[in-house]
Amino acid sequence: MTDPYLPRYREIEQALRTRIAALRPGDPIPSEADLVAEFGVSRMTARAAVQVLADEGLISREPGRGTFVAELPHHRRADSLVSFSNEMRRQGRVPSSRLLRREIRPPTAEERDVLGLPSGQRVVALRRIRLADGEIIALEDVALPERCAEAVMGTDLEQGSLHEALIGAGFVLARGYATLSAEAASVDDARLLGVRTRHPLLVERRLIRDDQGRPLERTESRYPGDRYGLDVAFHVEAPRRRPSSPPTRRGKR
Question: What's the CA gap between 151 and 139, in Å, rounded?
Fold first, then answer.
C-alpha cells in the first residue's frame, strides 16, 4: 500500500536510499536541482531529503563538485540506523538471513507495553539469523503490530530486507531509540550463533516509530563481540567549574 500522507522529502529520501544501496562509494547522486525536476518539489524539500542522508553518513557533499556516495564505514554509526541488508552491501558483503520463525501470536507482556498494543491485538513475530557472505553476524528477534502482517508474512525475509518490505508497503520508519549492553551467550545463543557458551555478545534492543510517533518495530539483535561493532561520534562536554570557596575571614584578636 502507498501512504498518501508520506511527506515528500521522505519519499525522496527513501528513493535515494534504494539507489545508494546499488552504487559504489564515490558515485554521484542527483543534485538538489535534479531532484526538484524529477520529483516536482521545492528546493527546500529536496534539500531536507539530502540532509537526512548526509546526517547519517550515507553521502558526502563536496563544495563545487557535488554530492557522492560516502566511503564505506567499517562499522555502523551508533546514532543512525541503516538496515542490516544495506549496511552489509555498503561494506561490499552479501547479506542473507536464515528464517527460524515467522508467526502471528499474542504478545508477551513486554511487547504489549513497548509497542503500546491495545488488549486483544496480536504481533507479527520473527526470529532470524543474519549472515554476511555466509558468516553468522547476529541473532535477531523482531515484534511488529498486527497491522504489519500483510507486508511481512508473504515477503522473502531470507534474501530480502524487512525494512524494504515495510517501506514498500507504505510504512515510514521515522525515528528510534536503542540501548546497548554486553551479555554472555546463553546455551541457545551459542548453538545458533556458533560460539561457545558465555562468549561475549553485543546486544542491541531498539524501538522504531513511524512518522506519526506510533511504535512500529521492537527488535533485539545479539552479535558476537568479535564479529560486529558500532562507531560512536560524540561531543566533548566541557567540565563544570567548581565554585570557588569564599575567602576565609580572620577573626579579631
Answer: 22
What Cα–Cα distance (Å) separates residue 82 from each residue in 172, 222, 239? 14, 16, 33
Domains and CATH numbers, the chain: 1-71 (1.10.10.10), 73-231 (3.40.1410.10)
Q: What count of Cα atoms within 13 Å lies in the side-chain half-sphere of residue 61?
A: 12
* Model confidence pLDDT, tens digit, residues 85-129: 777 776 767 889 999 999 999 999 999 999 999 999 999 999 999
Instruction: State the residue for C-alpha cell 534504494.
Output: 18
Residue 188: name the closest of 165, 156, 220, 210 by CA: 220
* Whether the Cβ atoms of residue 176 and residue 184 lie closer than 8 Å to each other: no
Q: Do 142 and 219 form a contact (C-beta atoms < 8 A)?
A: yes
- Is the C-alpha dihedral spanning 103, 106, 107, 112 positive or negative? positive
Per-residue model confidence as pLDDT tens digits over 41-92: 999 999 988 988 887 778 888 888 999 988 765 555 555 666 787 777 767 6
Distance (Å, rounded) from C-alpha 253 to C-alpha 251?
6
